[in-house]
Specification:
By secondary structure, the chain is α/β, with parallel strands linked by helices. Helices cover 28% and strands 25% of the residues. The structure holds flavin-adenine dinucleotide. Flavin-adenine dinucleotide binds next to helix 1, strand 2, helix 2, strand 9 and strand 13.
C-alpha cells in the first residue's frame, strides 16, 4: 500500500512525535494507517527541542498574572498522566530511549520569585502534583553545582529529560511493524471534504502527485497545522513560535536534574555524554519571504542578543558553566494555541478531522497520542482530553462552509 493508491482508515499528516506515536497506537488497535511526512521523520520540532520532561507548571503560564496561572494550572491533571506515560515508555516500546527522570528544580533568585514558587506549589499540590519548596540551604545540599546565591527552588522528583533525536523514530519503527505505511518526502498539498463526508487528500511526493481518500485525517503537523486546516477553510488558533537551543562541550557529571527558572527563561540539563543543553524559550527570528511575510518553512535565524541572554542566565544559575565552550546553537519552530493549552481532538465542524498540536508536546506528546488514538477508535473524546478539545474555539469556524 502506498499513500498514493490507498484508502486508509486514517491519513496522518506529519512525522513528528505526535504523528508517529498516534500512528503506532492506531495501527496497534487495528486501523489501516497512512502517514505522510514532507521531509523525514523527526525533522520538525520533535527533533530540535530541548528534551525537557517538565511536569511543574511552566513559567510561561506564570508570567501572565495570577488569574492566567490559576487557569493554566488545569494542565496539571495531564502532566500527572504524562509522568506515568514516560515511566512506562521504554517497556512499551521495548528499547532504551535515553530517559533520565532524576528530578527537576525550578529555581528562584529573589524573595519575590520564591513567593511566586510558593503560589505555584500550592496550586500544584491542590491538584495532586507533589512539588515541594526547597529553601536555599536545602537547594545547596541537593545541587551543590548551582549558585550559592539562589534563594531556593521548587522540586519535583519525577521530572527529567530524554533524547529528542530518537523518540519519534522509535514510534515510527514500531508503527511500521504494526502495518502503518510511513511515507517520507510526501507532502499534503490539497485537502477537501467530499459530499459523502470522506476526505480527498492530494499528496505531492517521491512518485509525483497522489490522491488519498479516507474517512479520517489527523493533522499532526506542528506549527503547519493551522495552515493545513486552511485548506478546508477552517481556523485553528495555533501560532508559530521560533526558538533557540544551545549545547556546550562535555564536562564531568555534576547535574543529574532538569533545571528551570521561575523568573527567567531557562531550561538546563546535562546529557548522558556530559554536554549541557541550554534553552528555555529564547526566541529566534523568522527569515522573510520575498513578500515580506515570515517564512515558516525555513529554520529561524539565531538572535545574538537572545543567545547571550540565555547563556548569561544559565551561567548565573550555574557559575561553573562559564568555563565551558559552546559547541552549537540551533533553531526550531514550535507553536502555542490561543489559551496556551494543547489542541487535541476532533474539529466538530469537520467530522473525521482531528488535530494534535500546541504547547510542550515533547513532554505531553506520548500521553496525548495515546488518548487521541483512544478517542479516534472509540468515536468519542477520552475524558482526559475534555480541557483540550479544539471545539473550545468552535466560534472561529462558525462561518466555515463544508459540504
Ligand atoms: C527549540 C525548541 C525547544 C523545545 N523544548 C521542549 C521541551 O524541552 N519540552 C517539551 O515538552 N517541548 C519542547 N518543545 C516543543 C516540542 O518540541 C513540540 O511541541 C513537539 O515536538 C511537537 O511535535 P509535533 O509532532 O506536533 O510537531 P513536529 O515535530 O513539528 O512535526 C510536524 C511534522 O509535520 C510535517 N509536515 C508539515 N506540513 C506537512 C505537509 N503539508 N505534509 C506532510 N508533512 C508535513 C513537518 O515536516 C514535521 O515533521 C520545544 C520546541 C522547540 C522548537
Amino acid at each position: 500500500m502506498t499513500p498514493g493508491s490507498s484508502h486508509p482508515d486514517i491519513l496522518i499528516v506529519g512525522g513528528g512525535l505526535l504523528g508517529c506515536a498516534s500512528a503506532w497506537h492506531l495501527a496497534r488497535r487495528g486501523l489501516r494507517v497512512a502517514l505522510v511526512e514532507q521531509s523525514q521523520v523527526n525533522a520538525g520540532a520533535s527533533g530540535q527541542n530541548a528534551g525537557s520532561l517538565h511536569f511543574q507548571i511552566e513559567r510561561r503560564f506564570l508570567e501572565q498574572g495570577e488569574e492566567a496561572a490559576s487557569d493554566a494550572a488545569r494542565i496539571v491533571s495531564l502532566n500527572r498522566l504524562a509522568i506515568a506515560e514516560w515511566q512506562g515508555l521504554e517497556d512499551m516500546l521495548g528499547r532504551g530511549l535515553d530517559i533520565a527522570m532524576h528530578g527537576g528544580l525550578m529555581v528562584a533568585e529573589t524573595e519575590a520569585e520564591m513567593a511566586l514558587l510558593a503560589f505555584k506549589v500550592a496550586r500544584e499540590n491542590a491538584l495532586g502534583l507533589p512539588t515541594r519548596l526547597l529553601d536555599a540551604d536545602e537547594l545547596r545540599a541537593r545541587a551543590p553545582c548551582l549558585s550559592p546565591h539562589l534563594a531556593g527552588a521548587a522540586w519535583l522528583a519525577e521530572e527529567g529529560h530524554a533524547n529528542p533525536r530518537i523518540l519519534a523514530g522509535a514510534f515510527a519503527q514500531q508503527a511500521a511493524r504494526e502495518g502503518a505505511v510511513i511515507a517520507c518526502g510526501a507532502r499534503l498539498t490539497g485537502l477537501a471534504m467530499q459530499a459523502d463526508g470522506q476526505y480527498r487528500a492530494t499528496i505531492e511526493g517521491l512518485d509525483g502527485l497522489g490522491e488519498v481518500t479516507t474517512p479520517r485525517v489527523l493533522l499532526a503537523s506542528g506549527h503547519w497545522s493551522a495552515r493545513l486546516a486552511g485548506l478546508l477553510g477552517l481556523n485553528l488558533p495555533l501560532y508559530p513560535v521560533p526558538l533557540m537551543m544551545n549545547v556546550t562541550e562535555r564536562g564531568e557529571q555534576v547535574l543529574p536534574f532538569l533545571v528551570q527558572h521561575v523568573g527567567q527563561r531557562l531550561s538546563m540539563k546535562q546529557s548522558e555524554d556530559g554536554n549541557f543543553l541550554i534553552g528555555g524559550g529564547w526566541p529566534s527570528r523568522f527569515r522573510r519571504r520575498a513578500d515580506g511575510l515570515p517564512d515558516l518553512d525555513r529554520p529561524g535565524e539565531i538572535v545574538e542578543a537572545n543567545l547571550l541572554g540565555n547563556l548569561a542566565v544559565a551561567a548565573r544559575v550555574m557559575p561553573g558553566l562559564a568555563a565551558r565552550s559552546l559547541l552549537r546553537s540551533w533553531t526550531g519552530t514550535t507553536c502555542i494555541s490561543a489559551d496556551q493549552l494543547p489542541l487535541v481532538g476532533e474539529v466538530g465542524k469537520a467530522p473525521g478531522l482531528f488535530v494534535a498540536a500546541g504547547g510542550s508536546l515533547f513532554t505531553l506528546g506520548p500521553v496525548l497520542a495515546r488518548l487521541l488514538a483512544q478517542t479516534i477508535v472509540d468515536g468519542r473524546p477520552a475524558d482526559e482530553l475534555a480541557l483540550f478539545l479544539p471545539d473550545r474555539f468552535a466560534h472561529l469556524n462558525a462561518f466555515a462552509v463544508l459540504p
